[in-house]
From TrEMBL, chain A:
Biased composition (Basic and acidic residues): 431-440, 470-505
Keyword annotations: Nucleus, Repeat, WD repeat
Gene: LOC113725738
Primary residence: nucleus
SMART domains per record: BING4CT, WD40
Residue ranges with Basic residues bias: 454-469
Keyword Repeat: yes
Region Disordered: start-end pairs: 420-519
Protein species of origin: Coffea arabica (Arabian coffee)
Keyword Glycoprotein belongs to the record: no
Name used for this protein in its record: Probable U3 small nucleolar RNA-associated protein 7
Repeat (WD) residue spans along the chain: 258-299
Subcellular location: Nucleus, Nucleolus
TrEMBL record, chain B:
Statement: the UniProt record of this protein carries the keyword Ribonucleoprotein: yes
SMART domains: WD40
Name listed for the protein in its UniProt record: DDB1- and CUL4-associated factor 13
Main location: nucleus
PANTHER family: DDB1- AND CUL4-ASSOCIATED FACTOR 13, U3 SMALL NUCLEOLAR RNA U3 SNORNA ASSOCIATED PROTEIN
Keywords tagged on the record: Nucleus, Repeat, Ribonucleoprotein, WD repeat
Organism of derivation: Coffea arabica
SUPFAM superfamilies referenced in this protein's UniProt entry, alphabetically: WD40 repeat-like
Domain Sof1-like protein: 361-447
Amino acid sequence: MDEDDEMDMKVKKYLRGESANLEILQDRKLKGQLAVREELYGKSAKAAAKIEKWLLPSEGGYLEAEGIEKTWRIKQESIAQEVDILSTRNQYDIVLPDFGPYSLDFTSSGRYMAIAGRKGHLGILDMKNMALIKEFQVRETVRDIAFLHNELFFAAAQKKYPYIYNRDGTELHCLKEHGAVLKLQFLKNHFLLATINKLGQLHYQDVTTGQMVGNYRTGHGRSDVMQVNPFNGVVAVGHSRGTVSMWKPTSAAPVVKMLCHQGPVTALAFHSNGHLLATAGMERKIKVWDLRKFEVLQTLSSHAKTLDFSQKGLLAGATGSFVQIWGDLAGAQSYDRYMGHSMAKGYQIGKVAFRPYEDVLGIGHSKGWSSVLIPGSGEPNFDTWVANPFETPKQRREKEIHSLLDKLPPETIMLDPTKIGAVRPTRKKEKPTNPEREAELEAAVAAAKDIPMKKKTKGRSKPSKRAKKKQEAVEKARRPFLEQAAKEEELSEKKRKRISEENELPKSLQRFTRKKARA
Amino acid sequence: MKVKVISRSTDEFTRERSQDLQRVFRNFDPNLRTQEKATEYVRALNAAKLEKIFARPFIGAMDGHIDTVSCMAKNPNHLKGIFSGSMDGDIRLWDLATRRTVCQFSGHQGAVRGLTASTDGRVLVSCGTDCTVRLWRVPVATVMESEESSHNSSEPLAVYVWKNAFWAVDHQWDGNLFATAGAQVDIWDHDRSQPVNSFEWGKDTVVSARFNPGEPNVLATSASDRSITIYDLRMSSPARRVVMRTKTNSISWNPMEPMNFTAANEDCNCYSYDARKLDEAKCVHQDHVSAVMDIDYSPTGREFVTGSYDRTVRIFQYNGGHSREIYHTKRMQRVFCVKFSCDASYVISGSDDTNLRLWKAKASEQLGVLLPRERKKHEYLEAVKNRYKHLPEVKRIVRHRHLPKPIYKAASLRRIMADAARRKEERRRAHSAPGSRLKEAFRKKRILQEVE
């Protein structure tokens, strides 16, 4: 039944992974204890699924086209006519042409927004009341802005150094070690401020103690594309060679380096579940990657100067004065056009950011900033203990203290954060036997031969060329096996040479032959 | 087109008056919470550290006896009181809340060896080395009692003289009979001046006796010939017997699983048995470094407390091979008797230095009335600490206990000796024909034989 399937899917989400295999345990006491625990997990997942079905107060937004109209042709004005007045207040354009392209940032509850104009205009706004809390001029180039853990503090990347300001506009800190910062990101759970500067150096600073946790050279020159993955806290930097490298504060070498595009990477965005990464390159491609397997799930052909994922998985990309929003409506992880918004011709969009817990997209452009309604982009139900848009000052103070008590040490940033507390797998590497290896080779070759070749037009699909391409694919499949075989040959060759060397020497000198150091 | 946008009205999500509570909305979606496991790990680490900060188990000492406290008795109808008897014949009733003597029962000429309260809690039975069994009337606690000074004394209800010195006494959980242990096991009735029945197996003195909480007629005793015997009062002869390698000093039945009992042995271990199957111990509880003198189960049946000749009190889990907690003080000498309080929150130990000491069963517990919020927080911290207690940092903190130097050295010496013996046995097995030397389970190794 459909309802049962729905409940099963929900329960699966709350179970957070597979249940442990208890059959392999031989310790009966441990088995009994773990069986009880697994049962409790099942019960709590079911209870959470039921709560999600029946007890959540709000429902999400949606946009459905009727008849022959398409959702991506629907304009903001027509949406405004159908929606209540309170929501139309979220659609506006603030025009401030003097102060340069604007960059924006939202707090995690979506209530406060910080704006930074390139020519030095900084400000904080309360979005619930549409009130300006504070604005001031720093009379210097400001390249980026980011809130720290709550709306009281924000960091601005100014001409020479980044500065940290209070909500009242008081300058609290001048972070001299970071240098001329291009992009700032704040890691919420770890209270780390990650910055990348003009020389391509990545700095991590703990904002509670002021200690510099890490300071690494990315090695690929200047890059102004940096995003933090909210799922695991790694920082991804996009380079002008088309590579994306991911960093963590405890190692000087990047955790992952992926070649994404054939030109410079222009924008990056992470999905909140941590599995999807969208990268945009200058060769007019936006690729959606699966981070578990590091494979391309989808390629969209469009430019994007800035990308952002919403809480519900919609992807917004902006180039020039046009914003395009893609969504995976069928749930099949394939992104199609959902909505679009084009602004007046002279407006160059610099940054797009979805507002958390609201169906709103904030757009920072060269003549100010705007906000448009995107139904279905925000999470309708917030959790008071995670992020509360209706927070009172007392609640904010308590939350600050609790999040400081739960501050994670920088060592917990890793590619797979679910490994904490798990049993480390045994390191035994079994070498596959020869027939097994040959079988694997055959299977890989067969798979390579089965790949369907694309039929190209304009005389580019000559049979000779197609055959050559197929041959290349087969060679590519065989290459890892051949390399492994060659490596083993080399090792055994070395071993044989060493043994023969040993045998040639007189017996009294055999103890001085070079022995491999013990691991 | 159909369109709907999220719009929240402030009234629904904020409180109406300042007297109301703030509204809380929950969404348990895992996508909203990132790095849950790391956060839980940090909380577990902090919880372990906080537990150690708040671990102050010693509440107070009850001073009054002038000789070693040899035995104690609980009164199940009166949670606040505990009886204690000492080696000079002095019996006192203490009030645990004020830690003062309520009533003194003097009369014994020699050491008081056993104390027990009757089923309804009105009569206290005591026995001693002066070959007498005395019955006392327990004063009913009234409000005025706590205000007056603590030197009431009462006259015994009855004094029964018998042929031999007594070592222990225990009352039926549900009935009118009590059993004394001496040269043989005697069953007495309150009103008779001579034993109603007598059991004997072998010629050695019986050192301790305990009635089963579930079956009122089943009695377990231990004798100086290293045996544990189980008697049934309805039969004329003893039911079962198991002989071990060393003497059992004390026995305690598990009140929640009445077929199991745990025996405190001279070889520093406690052995849990199933009374129906005495050929193998269910569990061996090892951690003491000297003879275990007394043992008592918690009313929950999930843990028990032991007091040992090595000046420490340990709390074990009913199925755990090692202790979960150890209590020691420089002033506390050899511990001869321990009791778990009837509400499972406190442990009372009576020792050689003439004091009774009151300890918390859970060292970092907050006593008194807890707000529901506090209780939930404690439960959460306990649960998150248990989930991550296998990780090295958390384990190091949770496991850490300060041991007095002699105990630490004695324990490491025992470990070295046990390791050496194990290694020797393994080598012997490796060098003999396969199958000629069998591995003997430790649970069986200390048992010599079982006799019907």
